[in-house]
Design brief:
The protein has 179 residues and is α+β, with helices and mostly antiparallel strands. It contains four helices and six strands.
Length: 179
Amino acid sequence: LREIARTQEKSDREFLRRTETAERVNPPPPTAETAPPRAALPPPPAQEATTKPIRRAEVDVQRFIEDYLAAAEGVTPDKELSFYAERVEYFDSGRVSRDFVRDDQIKYYRRWPERKFELIGEPEIEWITPERATARFKLRFSLASVSKRASGVTENFVTFRTDTDGVQIIGIRERRSKD
């Protein structure tokens, strides 16, 4: 997974630089379909370029979210950062760069060196276009430092984009849940 994340991060940055302008000029058309078929996300190609976009039938959203949560439990934020696009609608901070996310995550990892996240149930997926979707899910968290502990449940909303280089988070927010 680490090798896939490193490869994905590098190729995602290159791809996003080339296509960000094209996406603004020619956005994909909306679709009426709302529920994707479940299938496994194939690993990104090691070094060969492809022009075929990843379609939602090829994305296992639950696995993507579980992998993201596992990365968020890591010792450093590097693995978690590989899930983010270059520009992200990030919690209450608005549209920010991946560098902003990295700096924020470094502070969070220092404040809470022990982090556990558990997905509760299956995510609800809404496909906005064939390449963009929002996942809504709940998770149980447990955070600890030398002097403090925190735990609870949050409802999370993650918007992601699929393209030839894989799947990336382009928006993330959460709210505390009473469950």
